[in-house]
Fold:
Amino acid sequence: MRVRRRGFATWGSVRLPPPTTWSKIAGMCRNITTLRGLEPPATTEEIEAAARQYVRKVSGITRPTAATDEAFEQAVAAITRVTAEVLRDLPPRRQPPKNVPPLRRPEVRARMT
Structure:
């Protein structure tokens, strides 16, 4: 539920900055590729890779340690599950995404072997 108060909005109990600044702070991480509208559709591996990149970005953890591994992997699993649901439930795109996901690029696949 959004409620406006003196130039600020709230989402639940979270106070958000003024809407004029949202585009500056809410931009997508440039390393996360659009998966909706791919042909063939995004694979489970591609969805998990995007979820892992998202969790890395928001947590600031690039390599989980023994202390953070369980929470990190639980977050990746949850984001993967929700992302798959979103991709399944959204209507088809009119045009495919502009960028090819990294796992579909030959040079990335070559580095993984």
